[in-house]
Amino acid sequence: MHLAYPAVLSALLFCTGLYGVLARRNAILVLMSVELMLNAVNLNLVAFDVWLSKTAAETLHSGQALTLFTIAIAAAEIGIGLAIVLAVHRNRGTADIDKLRDTAERHGPDGDDDPDHEALTAARSDEAQKAEATA
């Protein structure tokens, strides 16, 4: 098999993943697109390792070893990423990236807290006092 076939397939997979990262708004789809890009890189690493091992007398298969490390890192990344997305979805009710950009506390133009934020904080503290009183 020629080296061009896996290289073209890898380029197509990487471009598809890049499009998914840039165009998608759902955080889970963005994570899936990152995984697709990592798999394209893995395919390239294995293809070039096989191609280079045919020419070298001693083969170390370093491309395949690096691919195993990349797969392990990708598994950890997707686990942590999904945990973060699920926690954000539980708190905010959405996984839309555009709606999640404002994750910091809101402050007014003079540095004072937003009145809606103060009312929400007061309501939460009242609920906490009621919960302590009933416990």
- Percent of sequence in beta strands: under 5%
Distance between the termini: 71 Å
Specify Rg, calculated over alpha carbons.
Answer: 24 Å
> Number of DSSP strands?
0
Describe the structure.
This protein is mostly helical and 135 residues long. It is 74% helix and 0% strand. It contains 4 helices and no strands. Helix 1 runs antiparallel to helix 2 and helix 2 runs antiparallel to helix 3. It is elongated. The N and C termini lie far apart (71 Å).
Secondary-structure blueprint of this entry?
Elements: H1 4-23, H2 27-55, H3 62-92, H4 115-134
Helix pairs in contact: 1-2, 2-3
Highlighted features:
single chain, 135 residues, mainly alpha
Task: Describe the structure concisely for a colleague.
The chain is an all-alpha fold and 135 residues long.
